[in-house]
Write a structure and sequence with these properties.
Number of strands: 11
CATH class of the largest domain: Alpha Beta
Helix content: 10-25%
Distance between the termini: 37 Å
Shape: globular
Number of helices: 4
CATH topology of the largest domain: Thiol Ester Dehydrase, Chain A
CATH superfamily of the largest domain: Hotdog Thioesterase
Order of helices and strands: EHHEEEEEEHHEEEE
Largest sheet: 11 strands, antiparallel
Amino acid sequence: MRYKKDFTIHSYETNRFGKASLSSVFNFLIEIAWEHAQKLDWGFDALRSNNLFWVLSRVFIQVEKYPEWQEKVTVETWPTGTEGIYAFREYAITNEQNEVIIRASSAWLILDQESKRIIRPDSLTDNFRNFAQSKICRYPVKIKTNGRSENLVFAPVNFTDLDVNQHFNSVKFVERALNSFEISFLSRNKVIEIEVNYLKEGLPQDSLAVSRVSVTENEDIVSLIREADGVDLCTMKISWKAR
């Protein structure tokens, strides 16, 4: 049931410090999830043939160490069963010394392409119930928000923000959130934990703003808000550590 793939960190996947960016880590996890789902005959093509599609709902990532430019890493993933409407998946990224440097867990939804109705995974097949395997970290949970920042600045969804479902790409939410922090702050601090709740789909005509509320000195709650109706499309909890 496990699937693994080797990656080499390319220059375009790094940040100004020569280490893999958080966006690249997200991309590794999402890519290997798609590939494994395909091999299990529950991938993009299989679901689309039944007018269904996968949606990433929640993610939780713990970072011990970011891999460096040209470093080789192994990304491993495995399903861990279902709970209600969610199908869960775990990830481990290891370095060449076989040390786990990044742990992650994600929760996925299956939606009907026409009605956008959520389909329970175990209503489609009993196979999901047989996927339960060891957990490497806790499941992602619902994030509680506490107010919003003032003077929100809205910016439109761009063409390069869209995924194959014509929705605002899940990684672009994270990039917008991180880019709302000052360069000086990001130069001094790195993300060691991030939890993301994807709540609503972002569409091509939307304009989005970022709200940031500090919980502690080392933790922020960040929301991406749609201008048209003031709804949160995504919330995330970010924990920081000095570089």
